[in-house]
């Protein structure tokens, strides 16, 4: 990754390489510690500066680290941020603003996030159990994933993006998954393919009652019951703004494999009978080497995005 950026800087110059990072909570824990220190000592720690918790901090840090001079900004749309950053990067390339983009998502844990989700009664003490009749909620995680996007030929390409907004409720998705369905259909349209060509779907799959119900409804309407699918959140937890980028990495890895193995779905195997039947949840392998895969990300406010990655 580092060597690739160095080569691109030589080819295009640092002004033609941008950075777009999705984040929602990065730096907040620094602020929490600083406020506690201030309450105890009457002043902020000497090493504290408010810019540490600015939304722009992660993208600015990456740009400075690589000494890049192109556009730099962050995307903050809750749990779609990482995927939205990839969509923003694709637009910058398509418009000719940049020749290469470092893009992805990052979030770190903080008390505000943990207490906020706990107040919604959507967390579980055990491992999350997406689409199970026994599911009880999400696990909060933290993490990061970055991609290097260019217009140059590659073994994997971002070939479809679908974005919608339900504007249904400040925290709940549309119960019928209307916006989620539209996002998937828009991604298929941009990729110039149809649902039958998608070899694997990575669910948003949080393990909450509401998300899994609406996503199962939307997926069943778009793909029917036979799509190979899984949620990787039992492996990573819900990494919030990083989730869309991390789950795109799972899809990228699936396209690179030669054994047709798919990202695993860790659960108790007891599919909720009240959800539309999806017979290939937790399918361990694709029937043939995957060519197109889709990743879903959904967020507060009915903020939806679907990405399609394709193998060349």
Secondary structure elements and their pairing?
Elements: H1 2-12, E1 17-22, H2 28-41, H3 57-66, E2 72-75, H4 81-94, E3 100-107, H5 111-119, E4 143-150, E5 156-165, H6 178-190, E6 200-202, H7 209-223, E7 229-230, H8 233-236, H9 243-256, E8 292-299, E9 303-311
Parallel strand pairs: 1-2, 1-3, 6-7, 6-8
Antiparallel strand pairs: 3-4, 5-9, 8-9
Helix pairs in contact: 4-9, 6-7
H/E element sequence: HEHHEHEHEEHEHEHHEE
Beta fraction of the residues? 15-25%
CATH-derived architecture of the largest domain: 3-Layer(aba) Sandwich
The geometry reads as: globular
Number of strands: 9
User: How far from one another are the termini?
Assistant: 20 Å
Would you tell me the structural class of the helices and strands? alpha/beta
Brief overview:
The chain is an alpha/beta fold. The protein has helices at residues 2-12, 28-41, 57-66, 81-94, 111-119, 178-190, 209-223, 233-236, 243-256; strands at residues 17-22, 72-75, 100-107, 143-150, 156-165, 200-202, 229-230, 292-299, 303-311. It has a five-stranded mixed β-sheet with strand order 5-9-8-6-7. Strands 2-1-3-4 form a four-stranded mixed β-sheet, with helices on both faces.
Please, could you describe this protein's structure?
Keywords: Transferase. Residues 1-311 form the Ketosynthase family 3 (KS3) domain. This protein has helices spanning 2-12, 28-41, 57-66, 81-94, 111-119, 178-190, 209-223, 233-236, 243-256, and strands spanning 17-22, 72-75, 100-107, 143-150, 156-165, 200-202, 229-230, 292-299, 303-311. With 312 residues, it is an alpha/beta fold. It folds into 2 domains: 2-119, Thiolase/Chalcone synthase (Peroxisomal Thiolase, Chain A, domain 1), CATH 3.40.47; 155-311, 3-Layer(aba) Sandwich (Peroxisomal Thiolase, Chain A, domain 1), CATH 3.40.47.10. The strands form 2 sheets. It has a 5-stranded mixed beta sheet with strand order 5-9-8-6-7. A 4-stranded mixed beta sheet has the order 2-1-3-4, with helices on both faces. Strand 8 and strand 9 (303-311) form a beta hairpin. Helix 4 crosses helix 9. The model has no long low-confidence stretch (mean pLDDT 95).
